[in-house]
Amino acid sequence: MLEVINLEAGYGRHTVLRDICIEVREGEIVTLVGSNGAGKSTLLKTISGLLRPTAGAIRWDGERIDRLSTHGIIARGLVHVPEGRQLFAGMTVLEHLELGALRATRGGKSRAQRLDLVLHLFPALAERIGQKAGSLSGGEQQMVAVGRGLMANPRCLMLDEPSLGLAPIMVDALADMVTALHAEGLTILIVEQRIDLALRLAQRGYVMETGRIVMQDSAAALLKDPRVREAYLGA
Length: 235
Fold this sequence. Notes:
The protein has one domain: P-loop containing nucleotide triphosphate hydrolases (Rossmann fold), CATH 3.40.50. β4 (55-60) and β5 form a beta hairpin. The relative contact order is 0.18. The chain is an alpha/beta fold. Helices cover 37% and strands 26% of the residues. The chain has helices at 40-47, 70-75, 93-100, 111-121, 123-127, 138-150, 168-183, 195-201, 219-224, 226-232; strands at 2-11, 14-24, 29-33, 55-60, 63-64, 78-81, 156-160, 187-191, 204-209, 212-218.
């Protein structure tokens, strides 16, 4: 489904990603874990077309997409929910959801069905549908950000640090949401600072350090690996 092959990318003359190879198969939850500054968010930005790679290739269903525009990538069903939510404070919940639908790929659920799904997953948004995003709590803003991504009719949803700044009760709700989306048949690539949470949700995982993939295995094996536990889980 998604293949990243010997990828290099960065900012100006500063190379962040070096020889990155990952694969996400249809129907999986795959996680990228690692410390701050490892390059995880940079990788998602490069996959989604916000950054251009300097070497390597990104393939989606066998097609190279590393020179496509971001909206062209979204139209193919690969959708990125960025770190920090990136909402417009003066726009309402409904306006954000409608914005997400603008580049939706054809096929799959209709716009009305997608809206019903988002409001079913996030009942709080139904109550705040006309409310401006700037007046919502952090957890509610994250719901809007994910909902906006779902309105683009993704086949694969890339979530970048979705639990950032959330209260513990909202983190539990987030985990339930990811599980529910996966049950709907959605493929998910998740970057998450709460490594134990990410590895419990995922089937497979990659560990990044200083712009390189240093480990890959089933999520269950990584969760038990003493190197991962010592470096990231304080065990």
